[in-house]
Amino acid sequence: MKRIAIVGGGGHGKVCASIAEQLGYEIYFFDDHYPSIKTCGKWHVIGNTESLQRSLNDFDSAFVAIGNNVVRLAIQLKLELAKLPIANLISPSSSVHETVKLGSGILVVGNACINIDSVISDGCIVNTNSSIDHDCKLDRFCHISPGVSLAGEVTVGELTWVGIGSSVIQQTSIGSEVMVGAGSVVIDNIPNGLTVVGCPAKVIKYK
Ligand SMILES: CC(C)(COP(=O)(O)OP(=O)(O)OC[C@H]1O[C@@H](n2cnc3c(N)ncnc32)[C@H](O)[C@@H]1OP(=O)(O)O)[C@@H](O)C(=O)NCCC(=O)NCCS
Fold this sequence. Notes:
The protein has helices spanning about 10-20, 50-55, 70-80, and strands at about 1-5, 25-30, 40, 45, 60-65, 90, 95, 100, 105-110, 115, 120, 125, 130, 135-140, 145, 150, 155, 160, 165-170, 175, 180, 185, 195, 200-205. By secondary structure, the protein is an alpha/beta fold. It has two domains: about 1-85, Rossmann fold, CATH 3.40.50.20; about 90-195, Hexapeptide repeat proteins (UDP N-Acetylglucosamine Acyltransferase, domain 1, 3 Solenoid), CATH 2.160.10.10. The strands form four sheets. Strands 6-9-12-15-18-21-23-24 form an eight-stranded mixed sheet, covered by helices on one side. It is globular, with a radius of gyration of 17 Å. About 45% of the residues are buried. The structure holds coenzyme A (COA). Coenzyme A binds near residues 145, 163, 179 and 198.
């Protein structure tokens, strides 16, 4: 059985582990709150990121199960430098077209659909029941929350978080480090670093 080290023993970690289990991995959790946190769902947390660095050879691959985009990026970069292969966790109940280009450290949760000729870069989360239509491009470490719909040819910049239940119309470009509030409807391009909410989505914060 392949052994995977999952970093991040919170609720998101449980989701990642449940998919890793479906993919046939033996799961070992690491979390910097260890030993205060000793379990994650039914799994044991066996150390922190420092102890993982000391036991890299015990694992076939690793996965960073942290929802915060910036923290996920920082930890994945450290593991990549340590030469531990970073897995993709793609739920068997999701649908990813064979032409989709995938980086590493990607999570695709159940019932998500990624359509033809899309590109999903390193560290992206495509969460439960979300729909990424044809020719979309997700840049590194962005998070597409549950129930989001991206129409065709949408681009999403690095470290951007699209909130739960949002919709984005076709050929829209969302910049990097953008926050799209829950339930928003994006109909215009969004420059970098903004928080937008509502229908149609309007700016409420500048970085
Ligand atoms: C957009 C968001 C990040 C803003 O959070 P915040 O910076 O703490 O902002 P506030 O809660 O102070 O809200 C600021 C204003 O925007 C409004 N607002 C916030 N989120 C909104 C949303 N999603 N839709 C419409 N209006 C929203 C608030 O009502 C408030 O309006 P007011 O100034 O008239 O009172 C947050 O509300 C949100 O939507 N997060 C997404 C959560 C999510 O998708 N989780 C999925 C986990 S997988």
